[in-house]
Amino acid sequence: MFRQKIKKFSISIVLVIMFLSLCGFSSKTKRVYDYDDLYTDEDEEELEELLYETSKDLKCELIIVTVDDYDGKDSMNFADDFYDDHEFGAEFDDTGFLLLINMDRRELYISNAGEAPNYFKDSMIDEMVSSIGNYLANENYLGAAEWYVEYVDENMWDTNYNESGLKRMMSEWWVQLLSAAVVSAIIVGCLTYSNKSKMTVNSNTYLSKSGCNVLQSSDNYIRTSTVSHEIESSSSSGGGSTHTSSSGKTHGGGGGTF
Q1: Rounded to 5 degrees, what angle do the CA atoms 72, 76, 80 make?
Q2: What is the mean pLDDT of residues 76-86?
Q3: Mean pLDDT value across residues 145-171
Q4: Staple partner for 94: which of 33, 88, 89, 251, CB 3.0–4.6 Å?
């Protein structure tokens, strides 16, 4: 009887784990939409795996779309709408990137959303457009995709580019716990040290044995001096420029030709 209960309990645990894994980050989400047939089946399979692993590790969706037509839109609106309509980044508060490639027009556009615009300045987007464009100009489509993924992987959540990265890191419970432990250890150490140290001075140390007499006391007004400093203010948080898509969501990004 006891063994049967253990067996049933073990099966229940396995089923729960399987259910939770299915409800979590899905590996079946399509991330390469190669409508322009720039990639071989092998390349597309490789990219799907790369985008899945990187998206999962970064908690930031990475998408690649190739087209030969924008359905009457410009590249920016097409990229933003494609991202929003497919609800990419839903598991990460909409955070993610979409690389749009149009070889017929020789254009590319990078759309980002969620927290991504806070970490990618306009200059960084320009660097991405330039570097990816060079790969595409040489018809190295796989190299362009791999560089795109690597660049986002290296710079997303980088605290060197934005203060909110530090805030995000400090919000992790283990960082807060470790910080509290370190501060507590320092306080205890200081108290222990102070208790061991002997007091070498007291209230009589600096008093003259002959006493002290106040001979004369006076206050003389000389002048008033005022120094003013200009304080510069800025509404920029250090991130990139943003705009609102047709669905009302905030996006950043940029594009160009090659």
Answers
A1: 95
A2: 98
A3: 72
A4: 89
> Which residue, among 68, 100, 58, 61, has the nearest Cα to 81 in the 3D structure?
100
In angstroms, the CA 187 to CA 181 distance is: 10
Task: Tell me the C-alpha distance between 151 and 55, whole Å.
Answer: 13
User: Are the C-beta atoms of 240 and 124 separated by less than 8 Å?
Assistant: yes
**Residue 252 backbone phi and psi in degrees, to 5:** -120, -170
- The region of weakest confidence among 78-87, 140-149, 216-225 is 216-225
User: Residue 215 corresponds to which tokens in the numbers above?
Assistant: 């001979």
- CA–CA separation, 34 and 93 (whole Å): 25
Domain coordinates in residue numbering, the chain: 29-171+241-257
Looking at domain 29-171+241-257, which CATH architecture does it have? Roll (3.10)
- Tell me how crowded residue 149 is: count the other CB atoms within 10 A of its CB: 20
Q: What is the pLDDT of residues 10-43, one digit of tens each?
A: 454 444 444 434 444 445 689 999 999 999 999 9
